[in-house]
Each structure stands twice: as C-alpha cells, then as structure tokens.
C-alpha cells in the first residue's frame, strides 16, 4: 500500500515547544515571544495594496486560458462558480469557531504529537522563525477521528463527518483543476495517471488568527510557500492574507464572498519547470476581528517522481519523489527549492 502523508511527516519530528500555542484567550498585551520587528510587519501595508490577483469564473469558456495566465503571472487566483455549495464552507467555519473557542485545556487534549501530523497546534513552519505567530491551527491528514474524540468524547461525529465530506468535495474540485493545469502544461495523460487515483495526497488545515492587541508587531502566519501542488483556501470575510509579487510587494487577497483562493505550491513550481511561481504568502492580523480560514493542500502520490517532463526544455530541478521533497522541505523550509535546482 502506498504510504500516507502522515507517515511522510512522521519521519520529521518536531519539539513540543514548537507545537504548543499560548492561550490567546488569557493574554491582554503582546508577549515578547510574539513581538516581531515592526518594520518587518509594516511593509505589509506598503507597495502592492493597489493590485489584486485575478478572479476567475470556472464556467467561463476561457477559464483554462485565464487560469494559465494567472498561474504564470501570479501563482494564484480567486475562483468563483467552482461548484461547491457555500453552505459547506459556512458549516466548516462554524465547526472551526466551535473548536478554537474551547478552553485551552480542552484543545490541548488533541495537541499534535512530536511525530504526528493530525491534531491541534502551531503552524508546522514555526521552528524556522525567531518569533511566534499569532495563530493556532488544526491539521487533518486522513481521519480526524482520534483527535476529535479527545476533544469531544461524546460529540465527535459531526466534526468528523463534516471534515471527511469536505476532503471529498475538495478532492473533486482539485482533480478538476489539476486536469486543467496539466493541459496547460502539456503534460501527457500517461504522466498524469495518478490524478483521480486513491494515492493522491490531500490535507486540511483549519486556521485561527485571534484578534490581536498590537497587530503592527504581530505576524499571523510568517511568509512561506506551500508544500502542495496547489492549495485551495476558503477565508472568512476578514482581510489578512497577502501574497508577494516581485517588483510589487505584498498584495492583499481581499475576501470575495463566493470565491476560493487557489495558490500554486512548490510541487507545481517543480513540475512546471519553474514556469509557475510557488507563491510566497503570509497572514497579518488585526485588532478587532478574529479571522478563520480553511486550506486544502493537494498533491500527487508520495512515490510520484517530480520531474519537469517537457522534452524540449532543460530540466531546472533534479527528479525527487514527493516524499523526498517533503523531507527536504521539513528540514530546510524556504531553501528547499534551491536545494533541488540543477543550476
Ligand atoms: C496555510 C496558509 C492562509 C490563510 O495554511 O498554509 O497559507 O489565509 N493559510 O490562513
Ligand atoms: Ni500557506
């Protein structure tokens, strides 16, 4: 049997102090542990605030062309008319609110274990940054049953059923988008046999960014790229997500009531032979509103060899499997791409 995403992460344990969040409900001022250099956060509001990523209608007859352009130019776009019912997102957001509103003691019952993947805790990128983030999350790789049962011993079923349904529906949308993207890249059906197979990898991440007493010195989620082919994100109607565009700066991704944010991840950057950027993004926080989001990370099976298969181009990356790449990323974060570059 093909190994699972959680098995891939099991090989890269984390320290407990990098997993356990502070109890945000009990802090009234910004602790030093969470105080980032002000200029680092504030550049946020400069440069790119007049630009925005394209909003694409999946039903548009030109959708394929528009997606190709957006992937090349931005590495991200917002997608409307995606076919997933809005009530599903409302339900997931309601469950996320119910979860993160629990007392810290109860959430900690589902704390990710050092070599675990599913459960409650800080962002996986935390160890790479000198300061802590104004964020807590709940990661689901596979079934959330075990962790949900720790939190709600008698009432875990609604959460589990909803999250399983969410993964199913996101997988269908992700496969549709993958078909489009592989056509744009002219990748053959032979190469793309994994799409729709049971081996493809998907994970859900619920994110919570509490309101913050000093948002100019706090960071919701530090700049990173995703270890996915692409990520489909639903954000609550609260601003905070920004993507970095060369020569422009940090560009806000303003919530659109019916759209999902799609961003290219490292794996798409690799298989597109660097034609599509893996977009650097981050989340800033605010003083008055809690912010919630739910990300779905999609990718090929773990044993799939990421090569840039276009015959007439020089390969920019050496061939590694998805699993090997996850390992390189877990140890090196932002340097992972350059470590597999051929030049
Ligand atoms: C992530 C992420 C963005 C957001 O979970 O990797 O980038 O808006 N989330 O929460
Ligand atoms: Ni991300």
Automatic annotation (TrEMBL):
<dbReference type="Pfam" id="PF14226">
    <property type="entry name" value="DIOX_N"/>
</dbReference>
<dbReference type="GO" id="GO:0009686">
    <property type="term" value="P:gibberellin biosynthetic process"/>
</dbReference>
<dbReference type="InterPro" id="IPR026992">
    <property type="entry name" value="DIOX_N"/>
</dbReference>
<dbReference type="InterPro" id="IPR050231">
    <property type="entry name" value="Iron_ascorbate_oxido_reductase"/>
</dbReference>
<keyword id="KW-0408">Iron</keyword>
<feature type="domain" description="Fe2OG dioxygenase">
    <location>
        <begin position="200"/>
        <end position="300"/>
    </location>
</feature>
<protein>
    <recommendedName>
        <fullName>gibberellin 3beta-dioxygenase</fullName>
        <ecNumber>1.14.11.15</ecNumber>
    </recommendedName>
</protein>
<dbReference type="InterPro" id="IPR027443">
    <property type="entry name" value="IPNS-like_sf"/>
</dbReference>
<dbReference type="GO" id="GO:0046872">
    <property type="term" value="F:metal ion binding"/>
</dbReference>
<comment type="similarity">
    <text>Belongs to the iron/ascorbate-dependent oxidoreductase family. GA3OX subfamily.</text>
</comment>
<dbReference type="GO" id="GO:0016707">
    <property type="term" value="F:gibberellin 3-beta-dioxygenase activity"/>
</dbReference>
<comment type="pathway">
    <text>Hormone biosynthesis.</text>
</comment>
<comment type="pathway">
    <text>Plant hormone biosynthesis; gibberellin biosynthesis.</text>
</comment>
<dbReference type="InterPro" id="IPR044861">
    <property type="entry name" value="IPNS-like_FE2OG_OXY"/>
</dbReference>
<keyword id="KW-0560">Oxidoreductase</keyword>
<keyword id="KW-0479">Metal-binding</keyword>
<dbReference type="Pfam" id="PF03171">
    <property type="entry name" value="2OG-FeII_Oxy"/>
</dbReference>
<dbReference type="InterPro" id="IPR005123">
    <property type="entry name" value="Oxoglu/Fe-dep_dioxygenase_dom"/>
</dbReference>
<keyword id="KW-0223">Dioxygenase</keyword>
């Amino acid at each position: 049997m093909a190994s699972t995403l959680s098995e891939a992460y099991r090989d890269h344990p984390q320290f407990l102090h990098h997993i356990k969040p502070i109890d945000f409900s009990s802090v009234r001022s910004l602790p030093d542990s969470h105080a980032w250099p002000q200029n680092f956060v504030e550049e946020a509001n400069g440069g790119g605030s007049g630009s925005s990523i394209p909003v694409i209608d999946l039903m548009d007859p030109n959708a394929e062309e528009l997606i190709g352009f957006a992937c090349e130019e931005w590495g991200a776009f917002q997608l409307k008319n995606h076919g997933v019912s809005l009530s599903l997102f409302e339900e997931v957001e309601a469950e996320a609110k119910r979860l993160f509103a629990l007392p810290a003691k109860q959430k900690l019952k589902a704390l990710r274990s050092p070599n675990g993947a599913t459960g409650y805790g800080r962002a996986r990128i935390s160890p790479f940054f000198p300061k802590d983030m104004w964020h807590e999350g709940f990661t689901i790789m596979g079934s959330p049953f075990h962790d949900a049962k720790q939190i709600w011993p008698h009432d875990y079923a609604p959460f589990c059923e909803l999250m399983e349904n969410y993964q199913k529906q996101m997988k269908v949308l992700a496969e549709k988008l993958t078909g489009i993207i592989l056509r744009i890249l002219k990748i053959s059906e032979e190469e793309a046999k994994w799409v729709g197979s049971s081996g493809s990898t998907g994970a859900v991440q619920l994110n919570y960014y509490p309101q913050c007493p000093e948002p100019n010195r706090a960071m919701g989620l530090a700049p990173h790229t995703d270890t996915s082919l692409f990520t489909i994100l639903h954000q609550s109607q609260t601003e905070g997500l920004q993507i970095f565009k060369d020569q422009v700066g940090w560009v806000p991704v303003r919530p659109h009531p019916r759209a999902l944010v799609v961003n290219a991840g490292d794996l798409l950057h690799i298989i597109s032979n660097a034609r599509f950027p893996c977009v650097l993004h981050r989340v800033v926080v605010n003083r008055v509103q809690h912010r919630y989001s739910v990300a779905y990370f999609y990718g090929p099976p773990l044993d799939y060899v990421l090569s840039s298969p276009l015959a007439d181009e020089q390969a920019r990356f050496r061939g590694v499997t998805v699993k090997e790449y996850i390992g390189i990323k877990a140890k090196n974060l932002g340097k992972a791409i350059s470590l597999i570059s051929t030049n």
